Each structure stands twice: as structure tokens, then as C-alpha cells.
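User: Hey, quick favor. My workstation is busy. Could you predict this chain's structure for me?
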Amino acid sequence: MKWLDLTLPTPAENLAADEALLDWREENGGENILRFWESPRPFVVVGYANKIATETDAAACEAKGIPIFRRCSGGGTVLQGPGCLSYALILRITANSPLAGISGANRFIMEQNRRAIASLLPGSEISVRGHTDLARDHFKFSGNSQRRRRQFLLFHGTFLLNFDLALVGGCLRMPSREPDYRRRRRHEEFLTNLNVSAASVKAALREIWRAGSLLEDPPLNEIATLARMKYETREWNFKF
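Assistant: No problem, here it is.
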């Protein structure tokens, strides 16, 4: 597996990069990829089918200067920004493997990520909750989602490390769908920071996924084009 630590200048470019890497591998083949990025500014990102009016307080986001974007994968709405580590896995789908189906891929990938984080926090209960959450002692610190093509899949998410959790409740409404373990807890009662360094999480994930060599030729032109034609447009971001 190749790894890539690449933060581009804007949220739109960073979201486009995940989809462009998936398309690149689908069209050309190649090794699996593990990518990291960290946004220096807060922004909201809704899941592909989310309705902005239902999941966000769009007026509050606008007043705070926090933009809203839409990603290509499913899942719920999140607030990202400084103190939040984002990652993406581009993995080849093979028959008769855990990645062959959506549920099996969720279970396999989440367990790998759980083991990586648990290695950094001995004595803490790190568990997979719902389908694609990671929790520390029943408090969520990571949400994830999946997008599949024919030969490769994209699995991406975030880790709350030292994020301003108070900002979440001012931008996001209570989710329209939630896992049972949330028990209607407000954002500030449900989320938690890991309070570990981004470098340590990156190292743990690289080790668990055996990402040994650097990806030196990412498709930067394709990323820029996809950002401009899709992720920077109101037609895409506010389609629902």
C-alpha cells in the first residue's frame, strides 16, 4: 500500500481528492492508497443524500463564515477543521474477501482502524459502534463512510483529536438518523477528542495498513478539475 500526506488549499479540493484518487485507481489500477489531510479552517460536509436544511443550521454556518460542502459517499453530516485528522483508504475489491460487500468491508476496515487507535490508548475501551463509528468509552471520536466502484472502493472518515467540539452544536442540527448508542445525546454530550497527536495516529494507521512507501504521483490535475467542476459548485453542494 502507498501512503500520501496531502492537504490541499481548500475543502473543495480536499474532498475532490478522495474521489479523484478512487477514479484514478478504478481507471488505471495500482496499489492501495492511504491518504491523510488536515483542514486549517472549519467547514461542514454533508453525506451524499443528506438534506442541508434538515442536517445543518445553514444560517448559523453562513453567519460564522463556515462553508457547507457535499461529499461523494453516504453517512451523516459532520463539522471538520483544525484539530481534526481526515483520512481516506482506496482499496481494491476482490472476490471472496471482506471487501467484496458493503457490510463486510465496513466490519473489516473499522476493526483495523479500531486496533490502530487502541494501540495508542491502552486502558481505554475503543469500540466500533453503529456501522461506521469509533467510540472511546461510549463517546464518538470517528465517523466514516464508503463509496464503491467496480474494482476499488473509497473508505474515508475523520478522527477528532483536539477539535473545538462546542462549535458543532452551533452548526449542526440533531441528526435525522442516529445509531442506538447515541441515545439522543446532544453533540457536546456525544462527541469526544482523543487528545493524541496527529503524527501518532498517522503512524498507527500506516502500521496497521502496512502502508510502507510514499505515493509520489497523485493526479493533481484531475483533482483540480473535479474540485472546480463539482465540489466548488452550488449545484453539487446544495443539490438536496
